[in-house]
Amino acid sequence: MPCPINNLYNLWAVPICDNVKPYEIIEHTADVGLRIYGRELPELFTHAGLGLFGLITDINKIKQEKGDRRRVSIDLKGRSAGDLLLKWLRELLFHFSTKRLVFEKFDYHELSETVLKADAFGLKFDPKRHDQRYEVKAVTYHQFKLKKQKSNLSAEIIFDI
Q: Which has the higher per-residue pLDDT, 27 or 23?
């Protein structure tokens, strides 16, 4: 049974149960990192995408902003869940870097440890309306971790800024 959307995180429209927070920022010398949480791969990948864009701008403002959402279809393959997660974040960052798109919603058509087929929805970033926090340049393998513990997943990812 899907879990209800917790009001605390309703701005992200991400179902949160059992006090699983979406992500937290971790400090790293000259870079920035995220510790991401989820019960299953779709939740982990969603939290990773929201965390990435949360580093770039105020994702809550993007979520609340009216306007036509742009949809981008993404089809990726990886050697493992960790490899796929890094490819996912690199793909999302590519769309930000080239098209200035900030995604705040993700629909997964297929997601396994090696295959991802999804639609990402978001708005075009406008520096006149949106504050830029970090300039994320790259998603790195440096100190990357993906852990499975009981019924939860967590990942640590460092971003070049």
A: 23
